[in-house]
Amino acid sequence: MSIPLITTSRWNIEDGHTLEGYLRTGGYQGLRRALEMTPAQVHEEVKKASLLGRGGAGFPAGIKWGFLPPDVWPRYLVVNGDESEPGTYKDRLLIERDPHQLIEGCVITCFALGLSQCFLYVRGEMAHGQERIASALNEAYEHGYVGRNILGTELSVDVVLHWGAGAYIVGEETALIESLEGNRGMPRLKPPYFPASIGLYGKPTIVNNVETLSNIPWIVEHGGDAFAKIGAEQSTGTRIFAVSGHVRNPGVFEVEFGTTTFRDLIMGDQYAGGIRDGNTIKAFIPGGASAPWFFEEHLDIPLEKTTVDNEGSMLGSGAVVVMDETTDIVKACHNVVRFFSRESCGKCTPCREGTNWLEKILDRILNGYGRPEDIDLLLDVCDNISPGISWPPKQTTICPLGPSAVSPIASALKRYRSEFDAYIASNTDTPVTVNGGRA
Amino acid sequence: MTEIQQDSDLISVTIDGQEVKVKSGEVLIDACEEAGVDIPRFCYHKRMSQVGMCRMCIVEVDTGRGPSLQPSCMMDVSEGMVIDTQSEEIKKIQDGVLEFLLINHPLDCPVCDKGGECPLQDQTMAYGPGETRFVEEKRHFEKPIPINDNVYLDRERCILCDRCTRFADEVVGDPLIQFIDRGNSTQVNTFPEDPFASYFSGNIVQLCPVGALTAKPYRFKARPWDLEEIESTYPNPLGDRIVVQSSRDQVLRLQGLDSEAVNWGWLSDKDRFSFEAFQSEYRLDNPLVRGGGLNKADKSGTGLVAASWAGAMSIITESLNGADPDRVAVIGGARLTNESQYAWTKLAKGIIGTDHVSADLGDDLQPHVLLGLPRATISEACQPNNTIVLLTPDLKEEYGTLFIRLRDAAKNLGVKIIELSPMRTALSADAAVSLHPLPGEIGNVVQAITTGDIPREVGGISGEDLSLAHSHLKDTNVFVIVSRSSMGQSEEPIIEALTSLQEVDNCRFLPLVRRANTMGALDMGMAPGLLPGRNTLSSGSSVFSDIWPNLPTESGANTKQILQKAADGNIDTLFLLGADPLTDFPDKALAKAALERTNTIISVDLFVTPSVYESDVVLPAASFLEADGSHTNVEGRITSIRQKITPPGTARPDWMIAAEISHRLGHDLGIDTPEDIWEELSSRSAVHGGLDYRKLDHQPDGHLITATGRIPFIPAEERIETRPVDSYAMRLILGRRMFDQGTVTQMSPSLTQLAEKSDLRINQYDFERLGITEGAQVEVTSGGANISISVKVDNRVPRSTALIYSNLEGADPRELLIEGAHSIDIRIDPTVKASA
Amino acid sequence: MSRLNEENLRIARQIVSRYPKKKSALIPLLHLSQEQNGMVTNEAMEHIAELVEVTPAEVLGTCSFYEMFKRHPVGEYQINICHGISCHLLGAEDVLEHAEKSLGVKEGEITQDGKFSFEGVECIAACTEAPCLQVNYRYVNRVSSDEFDQLVTDLKNGQNTQIPKHGTLAKTRQNIQSEKLAGPSEVENASPPVWLQRNKEDQ
Ligand SMILES: Cc1cc2nc3c(=O)[nH]c(=O)nc-3n(C[C@H](O)[C@H](O)[C@H](O)COP(=O)(O)O)c2cc1C
Ligand code: SF4
Ligand code: FES
Questions:
Q1: Same domain flag for A198 and A303
Q2: Which residue of B142, B326, B369, B399 has the lowest C-beta tally within 10 Å?
Q3: What is the rounded distance in angstroms from the CA atom of residue A279 to the CA atom of residue A281?
Q4: What is the model's pTM?
Q5: What is the mean predicted confidence (pLDDT) over A255-260?
Q6: In the sheet where B637-641 sits, what is the strand order?
Q7: Of A324, A340, A361, at which residue does a domain stop?
Q8: Residues A312-328: pLDDT tens digits?
Q9: Which residues pair with B289 in a beta bridge?
Q10: Which range has the worst mean pLDDT, B7-21, B75-89, B372-386?
Q11: Is the confidence at residue A1, as pLDDT, over 60?
Q12: Radius of gyration of chain C from Cα atoms?
């Protein structure tokens, strides 16, 4: 099996992040190639590649690009580099180790779609990434790869580096746009379902993930067909997965998309190398904290979007978190629920109040104040956030964040309810003070 | 107009199994409501953008692709849509949302102002879970905090519906309250030490669906179930529709009534909280007469003392019996209802026989302008793609709800505003073109804009800006909103501007007036030469002579002329109907001389104003809260005013006072109820013909009077030459504020502190040029007169102009006015530091 | 004085100029002022409000939404200990507990010398390096108790010069000569970009 490294090829090159290192290793060839083509032809190659978005939802990039309404100007590109989904760790490396590849992807995309300005929204906590991309942009401007009259052509596009400031929800694309407009990062209402028609400043906007755009130079240079040949039919190319938790070799791996299995990734020697200390696997999160958990029987599922969807979870942001037999499931569940509760933007009642309530109930159970009826209560509160507790989730909320808090509870209770019961059984008295005590 | 009709084409949808016709393009939640299906909601408000935050209104919708859960406030109806609002799943979701809202909500309904009228409480009773399943500690915040002088916020009760914050930002452009912090800790608050200083803050109290926002004037005063209410009209020039709520014969609250045509439910704080004034201890509640003798030229030392109605009346009849009608005059009447105005006109013109009757106070546009131009309604002007020309000062200060309507039109309907105001206003940012011609030069500026005959520069406006404004007049409907802007500018330049605008195809006008019911006053004949129903003395005499025995034949004096006659000693009896010339008439000296020389001044008023103080007989009148009648707004819209409480003491409706005087003069006015007036009038006035007084109560948008052209507009004949400001001088703007020394503001405890002190405002540039320090006292002179005033930087004021607000505490800018001048230039001498 | 100083004001104006609408610069400017003062003060928010032409309340609304902006003083070194799921599985709670003992303050408090404060934070995107933390947003991977103590000692003694004081974000900024900039487009009524027009003709 010899697949090319598409996005991570420079990660081990000492100066891969500099313009010199980038050019030496074939950088900006995609842009030169694109400038010989028409914008429509470039778009066509991306369509042929069937590149799925790597930010979480997995929507085909070429098709999304096609949603731009004709004849509305200006249009913008917003790069989603807010990477904050627990377990996810790839966009930061792409930014730190190969910033020019991302910049090249951005410029090509602007060329193809007639986007007049690109905003690179990088998570605020990534100081090093900010520095790397800032230097790369300075170099790229200096040498005419970005800015006015790129490589001497009529193409003129600015790439503006923008800082996040610590809010997971801003990763949601409409919240990202709000944040970029200087507002609180609260998701906008749908419809429109995509910002492609009404986005930044009310104008057509393409939002793509860092990894998605990092694939563009390769696709344009080698052709969409070459890309589509790699991987499975509907999950083409390669994809980066971060495997963390109780594995021997936690790491970030670029693998062939759609054909590699979870077992390969978690157990394989060239990847995460199996469960630590010879332990057995208890559960794993296949695609970031929002995804319902998988268990041992799911290991042979391929890393393929549709298959994973049909099995009741998602590949999401390519974050695989492994829990071995020593894991306290109630604590793990509490940890993930607490994340969503703290990161709720507060807009929708069920998410703002519900996730917080879930966290409080789990807190109580963990602290020895659980009551037998709390399990039903947990499930009923879940049901009020995500009716039916099904997958894909139905939601009473604007964005999927609220319902995401349901995944860990539903998953943990499905398989390890006894651990909850054990906590509850250890409760000796009823601690419950009726609320409103403090008038 | 046809476009609107097309939009409202009906389509059919199925709601809970019932097929119904609804308006296409309507929001689902509204469509359901009209079909009789109420969907609970907290955040949705049809006058604001949709945010879909509370998630209470979720229903199941099938548009052909299978049922899905959708907030009904976020979706427009479409043909064939199948909606389920009642399924088990929906019920569970709604119960769930309610439970979520309640887990952190204090259950202090028994002590909450909102208890009894709270949607959250109602929903909980109707659908909510019985017992709480939330056993944890609730969220805590410091109990009510003031967010401005009149509004308190209890963040524990807040359900984060975004209504108040949206209102502040979207509707009135005062984004001073915000969501702060995130997620479960989100709260509404202001920036530290930066209160929610909005002219419209009371609206957020009305908007709040729970008891989180309360207004000081109402807090703890009553329980909603004790309140009785009635729909009425606030007597301001726009005729904002209101709901008056009272308990035990005390008005406790005014709320905005959502009238599509006028105020959309909004009110300015001045109007909302002014009910305090009408119930203040300073209200006149008994007649007063001057003690120690009457008809003295020198009235000093002779105070007003309480009297009986009979006593007061006998003094009045004495002064009128056998009097020469030419020596009797009436000033004022704009405060009155249409009915009272009719009664007073009939008394003055029909019985006493004088035509010296004038509701104007020298600071409004003349009757021929107000009645002579083809008139437009607010809603006609605010239609997509229209152009509105504003020849007004800052509407936010004086016409709050009109400001809101225009802001909405510019922001949401694509209406292009060409603003020609003396300085930057609250609408400037939303105007397509905002120009600030020098006072006095507006006629020339408008002529250039309308004709497209563009000079290099005129009135301080560049040719480029003039061309831009001109371009917006093409291929569109043009509407002009005009008022007598700055008193620093005479009326002529405005008439000149209107003369040019009249030439624009199909141009229509909405002239604004300064006082509540000036339009009604004109329609009831309270101007020299006019009779009710827009008749002139000559056209109307045949209509009224049978019941108005002493109709004068010659046109009488307007206010200025009346005051002049009085000052010359030619008036014996002067009625002031809610008028205060000493405060309001631009020529203060003339007003003073007039009152001093008049033998008998009879004031009919609510309060002791400076002019009332100088009167000989004072009769207490009933306010709009205490009498029935109707009001005519600037559009010509007649709406009902309804009595809610009894007048204080022996105060009575103005029409009743007129009837009484008439009776004592030996004539029956023929009016026993306001309704009688309409019987008499509607048969005689073509203008008022279609009006059915009894139906007004069921017409929230009232009855629109449309007749124009009966009183012709008199175009300007001459052109006023431009007059550059020399480099040592500044052109004066006299502005108005919402809160000033006016009676209502001063008599309302919640409003008095909002009035500022008088100062002179100039641009930073001029400020530096003159080398003044902020707050310095300077001496300002014009045509010999001078005042001492402190200076402030205000960058809304254009260069080479200076702004002083009228009627604030401190220096009175009326001193600087020059009789007959089209504009006033002042000099500021920073070196002559006048003593404070 | 916590308005932006002259140098930062110059940078601020440059940042503002890169966006089609001023308010977009709000978050970058808040970072800039936090860099200057170690935290975001009310005065700074008022200054930023002036610069981007919104009300101070709007600045506060945005500022308070984001965790990185501290409206109260924090230590010169703010230690963010990740307690996301991957770090949780590999002992984040132990690191937190150790930090409390080692620094002698509770989560959210500042050490007496003003040098340190710490808190548990959500996933910082270094999951394969768990347990991990950031000091002033600089990563420290797979941190043990000893390493933690060493880090604190080094910072205290000024032996670690890699980590700037709290608030400093990227040490490298975007720095572009103005003639190389394409410049922001008009938000309203822009025409299609030239390179598209040309290619329309080609097709
Ligand atoms: C709560 C939430 C958080 C998200 N966070 C991220 C993120 O950190 N990075 C990202 O690229 N996409 C994130 N997404 C997905 C984006 O909304 C969007 O789908 C994506 O950026 C589109 O890019 P793509 O099509 O290239 O994948 C998030 C979505 C949700 C609902
Ligand atoms: S679901 Fe939660 S995070 Fe998403 S918009 Fe609603 S409140 Fe905000
Ligand atoms: S009323 Fe629809 S979500 Fe609040």
A1: no
A2: B142
A3: 7
A4: 0.95
A5: 96
A6: B629-632, B637-641, B703-704
A7: A324
A8: 999 999 999 999 999 99
A9: B305, B617
A10: B7-21
A11: no
A12: 21
d(CA B313, CA B319): 10
Residues A294, A388, single domain; the answer is no
Task: Decide if C77 touches A, using CB distance below 8 A.
Answer: no
Domain ranges of chain C: 6-71, 77-156
Mutation test of the interface with chain A: which of C65, C139, C203, choosing the one with the most A Cβ atoms within 10 A?
C65
A115: in domain = yes
Look at residue C1 in the predicted model and tell me its pLDDT: 61
* Final residue of a structural domain among A228, A246, A261: A228
Q: Answer whether A383 sits within 8 Å of B92, measured CB to CB.
A: yes
Which CATH superfamily, name and number, covers C6-71? NADH-quinone oxidoreductase subunit E (1.10.10.1590)
List of residues 6+ apart from B108 with CB closer than 8 A: A439, B157
Q: Which residues make Cβ contacts (< 8 Å) with residue C150, sequence separation at least 6?
A: none
Is the model's pLDDT at B702 over the cut of 90? yes
What is the predicted pLDDT for the residue at C200? Answer: 61
Is residue A127 in some structural domain?
yes
In tens, the pLDDT along B789-808 reads 999 999 999 999 999 999 99
Q: Do A292 and A350 belong to one domain?
A: no
Query: Is there a contact between B191 and C45 if contact means CB atoms under 8 Å apart?
Result: yes
Domain at A317, CATH number: 3.10.20.600
Q: A318 is in which domain, residue-wise?
A: 238-324
Is the separation of the CB atoms in B356 and B562 below 8 Å? yes
**Residue B183 touches partner A, C-beta closer than 8 Å:** yes
Mutate to test the interface with B, among A190, A193, A339, A353 (most CBs of B within 10 A): A353
Round to whole Å and give the CA distance between C74 and A178: 28
Percent of chain A with pLDDT over 90: 95
Task: Spell out which residues of chain C touch residue B180, defining contact as CB-CB under 8 Å.
Answer: 60-61, 64
The average pLDDT across A328-337 equals 98
Residue of chain A minimizing CA distance to B101: A349
Q: C61 contacts in B (CB within 8 Å)?
A: 178-180
Task: Classify residue A318: in a domain, yes or no.
Answer: yes
Domains of chain B, CATH where assigned: 2-86 (3.10.20.740), 100-279 (3.30.70.20), 288-294+306-364+517-635+650-675 (3.40.50.740), 372-511 (3.40.228.10), 730-832 (2.40.40.20)
Residues near B400 by beta carbon (within 8 Å), at least 6 away in sequence: B199, B200, B266, B267, B268, B270, B271, B738
Q: What is the pLDDT of residue B232?
A: 98
User: What's the CATH code of the domain at A392?
Assistant: 1.20.1440.230
Token pair recorded at residue A105: 């992807």
Angle at B631 between CA B630 and CA B634, to 5 degrees: 160
Neighbours of chain C (3+ CB pairs under 8 A): A, B
Residue A92 lies in a domain: yes
By percentage, how much of chain A surpasses pLDDT 70? 97
Domain of residue A97, CATH code: 3.40.50.11540
Packed helices B442-451 and B491-501: angle between N→C axes, nearest 10 degrees: 10
A58 and A147 co-located in one domain: yes
Q: What superfamily in CATH does domain C77-156 come from?
A: Glutaredoxin (3.40.30.10)
**Cα–Cα dist B652/B662, whole Å:** 15
Q: What type of residue is B407?
A: R
CA A166 to chain CA mean position, Å: 16
CA of C122 to the centre of ligand 3 (A): 31
Do both A304 and A421 map to the same domain? no
pLDDT in tens, B597-611: 999 999 999 999 999
The answer for B146, left when phi > 0, alpha when psi is -120 to 50, beta otherwise, is beta
Decide if pLDDT at A432 tops 60.
no
Number of domains making up chain A: 3
- Residue B832 pLDDT class (50, 70, 90 cuts): low
